[in-house]
Write a structure and sequence with these properties.
By secondary structure, the chain is mainly beta. Helix content is 6%, strand content 75%. The radius of gyration is 21 Å and the shape is elongated.
Length: 224
């Protein structure tokens, strides 16, 4: 959550918080990012992931309509295509950071409608810790697996004010996941006689191919 508000603070300073020609909007809400990632490896299946989390953002528009936006989302990631944990649906964490600019077609006392071009970074990570076997010996298994992807796309944003400085927002982010890579490690710790030994394997699995992310969000927004 601290990272979300840090992004907002930087964006506020960058666009001139106290300039009379700017209208500033800060929001927070519930978000559901849905993404598919392709693995650049023959025979490998795509990774389909659904997240549930919180999104925080700053959106500021000039009196001429020019608009800037910074947003970050954090939350729980779920996937049946990640085979790391001892369950059908694996659970992890995601973080999406987005920056961009565009135009606000409606910007009156009641409504705001904006369309923005965006760039960003998508990160997700999964982990597990459980009993297993290694070299026919009982072992404690610890493993991590994740990915990082650069993204480009667009945001459609709408807000309606119930009061001069408060209202609700809804937006949809559409992203093409351009390129990225995976990261991971598997560690076995086991008893070998009177000694405790540890074996580690790097499970990084090469480049990832571009797919998509669609992310609807809804929440509250403050204007000043």
């Amino acid at each position: 959550m601290k990272k979300i508000f840090s992004v907002m603070a930087i964006a506020l300073l960058a666009t001139g918080l106290f300039a009379k020609t700017w209208t500033n909007n800060v929001g927070v809400g519930f978000t559901v990012p849905i993404s598919t990632i392709g693995i650049d490896k023959s025979g490998a299946d795509d990774i389909f992931q659904v997240g549930y989390g919180v999104k925080g953002f700053y959106l500021g528009y000039h009196q001429n309509g020019f608009t800037v936006r910074a947003a970050e989302s954090l939350g729980l990631a779920t996937s049946k295509d990640i085979k790391l944990q001892d369950r059908d649906t694996n659970l992890g964490f995601f973080s999406n950071l987005d920056l961009g600019a565009g135009y606000s077609f409606i910007r009156d006392d009641k409504m705001t409608l904006s369309l923005l071009g965006m760039i960003g970074l998508d990160i997700a990570a999964y982990s597990t810790s459980r009993s297993s076997t290694y070299d026919k010996k009982s072992a404690d298994l610890t493993a991590t697996l994740g990915y990082a992807m650069f993204s480009v796309g667009a945001d459609a944003y709408f807000a309606f004010k119930f009061k001069p400085n408060f209202g609700l927002f809804a937006d949809v982010a559409c992203r093409y996941l351009v390129a990225g890579g995976s990261f991971g490690e598997t560690e076995y710790e086991y008893k070998n006689g009177s000694k405790t030994e540890t074996v580690k394997f790097d499970t990084t699995d090469g480049d990832l191919r571009g797919k998509f992310r669609i992310q609807p969000s809804i929440g509250v927004v403050w204007s000043f």
